[in-house]
Amino acid sequence: MAKPRPLSPHLQVYRPQLTSVMSIMHRASGAVLATGSLLLTIWLAALAAGADIFGSVAALLQHPLGQFVLFGYSLALVYHGFNGIRHLAWDLRLGLEVKQVYQSGYLVLVLTALVTGALWLAVL
What is the pTM of this model? Predict the structure, then answer.
């Protein structure tokens, strides 16, 4: 009988790398954006429904938990956008060398932090 071996590389075997973590986060941010679009739909429906309902929804979004959700949504939006541009460059066969992949990865992370921070500073 053959030794039981894992069918594929296991997460406990490999050390996380920037490229793998960013790939996972790109997928996760896409899921956050899909889910967060429901919030945008609710906000738009409340806006169309009138001042009373919109006031209730706006009050929920002003709560610290609502602000946390909005921050997460904006962070996912900015990250997914910048990382999507990175993926489009790869589709054009640009930046595929290992050094360039890591440079663009760090650039995406820095730009995400700067743009999200600037957005929230402008809103507050």
Answer: 0.87
∠ CA 20-24-30, nearest 5°, is 145
Going from the N-terminus, what domains does the chain have, and what CATH number goes with each? 20-123 (1.20.1300.10)
What is Dmax (Cα atoms) for the chain?
A: 72
Which single residue is written with the structure tokens 């490229």?
A: 19
Locate the DSSP E strands across 6-112: none
Distance CA(85)–CA(108), nearest Å, equals: 9
Tell me the average pLDDT across 73-101: 98
Q: CA dist 29 to 25, 50, 78, 95, 98, Å?
A: 6, 31, 9, 22, 24
Q: How far apart are CA 5 and CA 26, in angstroms?
A: 30
**What is the rounded distance in angstroms from the CA atom of residue 122 to the CA atom of residue 51?**
25
